[in-house]
Amino acid sequence: MPDAADILRLESIKVHFPIQGGLFDRVLNRPAGAVRAVDGIDLNVRRGEIVALVGESGSGKTTVGRVITKLAQPTGGRLLFEGRDMTSVQGTSALRPYRHRVQMIFQDAYQALNPRHTVFDIVAEPLRSLRLVKNGTQLAERVSEALAAAGLNPPGDFVSRFPHELSGGQRQRVVIAGALAVRPELIVADEPVSMLDVSIRAQILQVLIDLRDKYNMALLFITHDLPLAWLIADRIAVLYLGRLVEIGSADEITFNPRHPYTIALRNATPQIGGNPCRAELPALQGEVPSAARVPKGCRFHPRCPLAFDRCRQEEPPTVEVGSRHMSACWLNER
Questions:
Q1: pLDDT over 50 at 200, yes or no
Q2: Contact 315/298 with Cβ under 8 angstroms?
């Protein structure tokens, strides 16, 4: 039963991309297979909550974000926004109210900004395309408000600049301002600080937290960095090969992880000095397996040094291992 406080709910969402076969596959109309980028995840985000989606490159994080923002169509499952099923809603006109309320901050600010447009035109574009302003005066006010909220003060110093005249942190703030201009209720932030240095990261994270507190916005924060997720998130969901393997409060996932993959992610974080609280688990070897050839049984077992025979035969269910703490690992039964 959906929680009344949920602004977003994903139910068994799947995204499978077909693999293009060879000549004989096409002649015989034979399916060549599919890349199972997202393979049945359940996730909810409450109003005013920051949820971090954590995993390695290739785990399906960005695909989940694209499904939520209706940039990718799921193969199966349901996408619910405030209880309304948005899964099959398509088309510019039908999606206009949804895009007003759900926005995305893209990872690469260099690619997200049009080099031929000024900052004013970049931030004003969603307001114009969604028809949210009535005249030029109102447009200028909304652009200035968004730039100020993103930390670009005074806005008048930035509106006439082009992207090449901005620093990396300023470019990222312009991307954030573009999302904020429409006053959304949910923002999907896809690795918004991965290309920035540490000092600028802290500023951008503080901007996102302040915006949540000020506007009661919900935020899905996509990252590969578990400590970074702990800094900003209320809850953390760990994604591996298209499946959620663990989800719980930020403190529980960071300091009391129950899945070997989460423990390995935490142990992979560089640190100064020893930490007696860190679980002993060998570093992960190799890359994430191909999503086109998902391993039989527990999909993490080819990389798990703690795997046993059952891991190779059956996929573990997601079970409760603590207060609002869920994990999918056979070791939780021991």
A1: yes
A2: yes
